[in-house]
Each structure stands twice: as structure tokens, then as C-alpha cells.
Design a protein that fits this description.
Keywords: Glycoprotein, Proteoglycan, Repeat, Secreted, Signal
CATH topology of the largest domain: FAS1 domain
Radius of gyration: 27 Å
Subcellular location: Secreted
Mean pLDDT: 74
Function: May be a cell surface adhesion protein.
Largest sheet: 7 strands, mixed
Oligomer: single chain
Number of domains: 2
Distance between the termini: 17 Å
CATH architecture of the largest domain: Roll
Low-confidence stretches: 1-43, 206-214, 225-232, 248-263, 425-444, 446-464
CATH superfamily of the largest domain: FAS1 domain
Strand order of the largest sheet: 2-1-7-6-5-4-3
Number of strands: 16
Bound molecules: 2-acetamido-2-deoxy-beta-D-glucopyranose
InterPro entries: FAS1_dom_sf (IPR036378), FAS1_domain (IPR000782), FLA15/16/17/18 (IPR044654)
Family: Belongs to the fasciclin-like AGP family.
Strand content: 15-25%
Length: 464
């Protein structure tokens, strides 16, 4: 694969961009430890009902509240008024809960549902057993979950109930700022139930089981248990950049690997398989087309996977691709550059990425477009890549995960931050995204035209 000459112009831009990048990259990676710790400057009183909850035997609930990142919100709530917490007994959250539903609640992308569900168990005022409504008619109380109400009632026997759950341990814990009542089961608001049902029916259509997916350590982004080096099928020893073909990526020429290429897997078949999955998933036709048509890129990916490397593809959806402007495609080699920037030489799933951003705030991933990295952070209970205008959300997680290739759908096309800056300086007088006229296949068309100009058709079969 040749193509070096056409990147000359580009590398000048990149060089300038790199300087810019180096000067601002120190700003990018500050961890947001305060959020992870859930603390707002130690305002909370140790005699608070929240502290009591975390210390109580309602460990399952306490754990969920922490996982849902609600401690800070609740701290603020008890700072303003008393609260009443209905705490399901542990068994209600372990043994008695539909495992699918529990999995749903714990999936990072469903954080909002989990928060809604938990806030539904809390009333923003104090209702001790003595102040419990006397009547058998139920009285609605608003909860901390917006728009959701709980019905407090009494059975004829005098037993207290909240919605359809019996209160089995009234006044289980009382503190100056609130009270906890033990209840027999989890309370599920209708909206959360609906979300779950929707997600489940979607799942059954689109599921691609992540079988044998290796566990990734979210702190290092590496496999938790690297295979012993000698074993066939183990990750290759050389960094992926050494194995990449020279070409669009601004990478050093590859050193000949010791012992030559070692073919562990049929990478080509896996690449075909994921492209196929992408096509069937729907909404990613343009990306799939590009991979089919840019045969050099697809076979490069296949080769790398064959040699034991792993890849995560951030696949922009069709809507995102349609927004690409002529301007963004005008640099020679731009389409391939764009694609390479969406390939991460690590195996990442939605879960591993979400865990990483949750814990560290901001995480930078290498891309196959050296030396550019893509920044990820937590936003709205999901993972957001890139920064500012050029950012994209993890939109369709885990479209394909086979342990070596992972495909994550995103809702934007990403550009290196520093390049965006340079471009906007250079072309400040041009409005950013006006020329965008949705049209399929624009990216590839452009590749062919640009390559045609440079007399380099041969690498792209579909340009002939
Ligand atoms: C919570 O309730 C107690 C007892 O009713 C009351 O003394 C206290 O002021 C209340 N706290 C807040 C923050 O309203
Ligand atoms: C890819 O090639 C096929 C067949 O050559 C063509 O129909 C399709 O439009 C091409 N895709 C793009 C994105 O141009």
C-alpha cells in the first residue's frame, strides 16, 4: 500500500495541530474524583438518615443508591427537608427480583431508570408511623422522582402499606432528618417498567451475544488476565502500530515483526461478520458501505485481527455521516483518516468504557490515527466521545462484540480536538455545517474523486 505522497499536505496541518494539541492536552485528563466519591465537601451530618441507610442492613438498597450516583442529590435533599425512605428488604432485591430486570437496572445506559426507581422510594417529608394516614383510603404522596406518586394506606387490620408493598418494619431507623420504613418488595414505577419492556423487545431482535468476550480492567483498559505469552491465540507482543501497514495513519514504518506474522484467527471472516451485523442492525449503512468499499481498510483490519490484535470500532450512524461537510472531506485522504480515528486498538465494551469514565471522569483512548487520541467522559448516564461541538454519544452500545472486535454505535463523526481548533481558526469565516446535505455515499465518492486527482485509483476497487 503506497499513498504516502498524498498525505504531505495533511501532515503539515497535523504538525501545526500537534503543537496546539501538546499545549492543551494537559487540560484534558483531570479526573473528577469528587463526583466518583459522591461527596460535596463533607456537608453531611453523621447523624443523618443517609449515613444510617449506608450503615444499615439494607445493604442492597444502599449499594444501589451509591451505584446510581444519588448520594449527592440526597445529601442536598436532607439539607433542605426531612425525607422518608421505603427500604425494600435485601431479599426483595436479590432473590425475588427478576434477574433480567436487575441486569437492566445495572446497565450503565439505564442509569436514569435506576435513579427514577430509587427516587420513587423516597418522599420529601417526614412520615413516621404515628403520622401515617389513618384511613384505608390511600393518600397520594409525591416522591423525589418527578411526577411519580406513592399511595400510602392502611389495611383493615391496621397494617401499613405503600402502593402494593406491605410495610414490614415501620420506623426501622429514625434520625433527626428522616425515617426509614422497611418494606417487603421493590416499588417499580410504570415508566421504568415500560423502559424495561421496550429494551427487552429490542434486545430480542438485535442481540449479538458477547460470547467469550475477555474481561477488561477498566483502570488499565487492558485485559484482566493476559494469556501466557507463548500460548497460541495470545495477544501479540508488538504494539499494534508496528503491525499496521504504512499508509494513511501517520505512523512510523512498521518494523518487521520477529518471527513474522502469526495467524491465530480468521480476521477477515470476523471483519466480514461484523460488517454484516452492522448492515443488519440498521442505521449504519454508510459505515458498512465504506468498510465494504474501502477494501484496503477492511482487509487491514482483518489482517490485524488475524494477527491477534483487538479493535474497537466507533461507528457513526447514518445521520452523523450525512452531516459530514465537503469541507471536512476536502483534505487528501480524509475519509481514511476519519475512519482510522474511529478505530481504538483495544477491546472495549460499553461496560468497560462506562466504568472507566465513571471512575476517572475523563479517559483518553488511543486511535489507529497516530498520534491522536479520542477523549471519553461520562455524560447523561452514557459515554460521550470528543469535546464540544464535535462530540458524539455512545448511541447503540455493543452492536457487535466477539472478544476481538467490538463495534459501538455513536451519533457523531469524531475529529481530533486539535484539528477542529486549527480548522476553525483557519476557516473562521465559513459557517461550520451549512453545506451538509444528507446524501448516501458521499464520503466514498469523495475518496474516489480525491484519489483520482492524485492518480491513485488502484486501492479502491469501487472507484473504477
Ligand atoms: C425534620 O423533622 C424534625 C422533627 O419533626 C424537625 O425537628 C427538623 O427541623 C426537620 N428538619 C428539617 C431540615 O426540616
Ligand atoms: C459501494 O459499492 C457499491 C457497489 O460498487 C455501490 O453500490 C455503493 O454505492 C458503494 N457505497 C458507497 C458508500 O459509495
Amino acid at each position: 500500500m503506497g499513498g504516502a505522497p498524498i498525505y504531505g499536505v495533511f501532515s503539515n496541518v497535523v504538525f501545526a495541530a500537534l503543537l496546539l494539541f501538546l499545549s492543551c492536552s494537559t487540560l484534558l485528563a483531570l479526573p473528577e474524583s469528587s463526583r466518583a466519591a459522591g461527596g460535596s465537601a463533607g456537608q453531611i451530618n453523621s447523624n443523618s438518615i443517609l449515613v444510617a441507610l449506608l450503615d444499615s442492613h439494607y445493604t442492597e438498597l444502599a449499594e444501589l443508591v451509591e451505584k446510581a450516583l444519588l448520594l449527592q442529590t440526597l445529601e442536598e435533599a436532607v439539607g433542605r427537608h426531612n425525607i422518608t425512605i421505603f427500604a425494600p428488604k435485601n431479599e426483595a432485591l436479590e432473590r425475588d427480583l427478576d434477574p433480567d430486570f436487575k441486569r437492566f437496572l445495572l446497565e450503565p445506559r439505564n442509569l436514569k431508570s435506576l435513579q427514577t426507581l430509587l427516587m420513587f422510594h423516597i418522599i420529601p417529608s417526614r412520615i413516621d408511623s404515628v403520622s401515617w394516614p389513618e384511613s384505608t383510603e390511600s393518600t397520594p404522596h409525591s416522591t423525589l422522582s418527578d411526577g411519580h406518586h406513592l399511595q400510602l394506606s392502611r389495611e383493615d387490620s391496621g397494617e401499613k402499606a405503600v402502593d402494593r408493598a406491605r410495610v414490614i418494619h415501620p420506623d426501622a431507623l429514625t434520625r433527626p432528618d428522616g425515617v426509614i420504613h422497611g418494606i417487603e418488595r421493590l416499588l417499580v414505577p410504570q415508566t421504568v417498567q415500560d423502559d424495561f419492556n421496550n429494551r427487552r423487545s429490542l434486545r430480542s431482535i438485535t442481540a449479538v451475544k458477547p460470547e467469550g468476550a475477555p474481561e477488561v480492567d477498566p483502570r488499565t483498559h487492558r485485559l484482566k488476565k493476559p494469556a501466557p505469552p507463548a500460548k497460541a491465540g495470545s495477544p501479540p507482543a508488538l504494539p499494534i502500530y508496528d503491525a499496521m501497514a504504512p499508509g494513511p495513519a501517520i505512523s512510523p514504518a512498521p518494523a518487521p515483526g520477529p518471527g513474522g506474522p502469526h495467524h491465530h484467527f480468521d480476521g477477515e471472516a470476523q471483519v466480514k461478520d461484523f460488517i454484516h451485523t452492522l448492515l443488519h442492525y440498521g442505521g449504519y449503512n454508510e459505515m458498512a458501505d465504506i468498510l465494504v468499499n474501502l477494501t484496503s481498510l477492511a482487509s487491514e483490519m482483518g489482517r490485524l485481527v488475524s494477527e491477534g490484535y483487538v479493535l474497537t470500532v466507533l461507528a457513526p450512524n447514518d445521520e452523523a455521516m450525512a452531516k459530514l461537510t465537503t469541507d471536512q472531506l476536502s483534505e487528501p485522504g480524509a475519509p481514511e483518516q476519519i475512519m482510522y480515528y474511529h478505530l481504538i486498538p483495544e477491546y472495549q465494551t460499553e461496560e468497560s468504557m462506562y466504568n472507566a469514565v465513571r471512575r476517572f471522569g475523563k479517559v483518553k483512548y488511543d486511535t489507529l490515527r497516530l498520534p491522536h487520541k479520542v477523549m471519553a467522559q461520562e455524560a447523561d448516564g452514557s459515554v460521550k466521545f470528543g469535546q464540544g461541538d464535535g462530540s458524539a454519544y455512545l448511541f447503540d452500545p455493543d452492536i457487535y462484540t466477539d472478544g476481538r472486535i467490538s463495534v459501538q454505535g455513536i451519533d457523531g463523526v469524531l475529529f481530533p480536538h486539535e484539528e477542529v481548533e486549527v480548522k476553525s481558526e483557519k476557516k473562521a469565516f465559513l459557517p461550520a455545517k451549512v453545506v451538509a446535505k444528507p446524501r448516501r455515499g458521499k464520503l466514498l465518492e469523495f475518496t474516489c474523486r480525491v484519489l483520482g486527482t492524485f492518480g491513485q485509483h488502484s486501492r479502491f476497487t469501487s472507484c473504477r
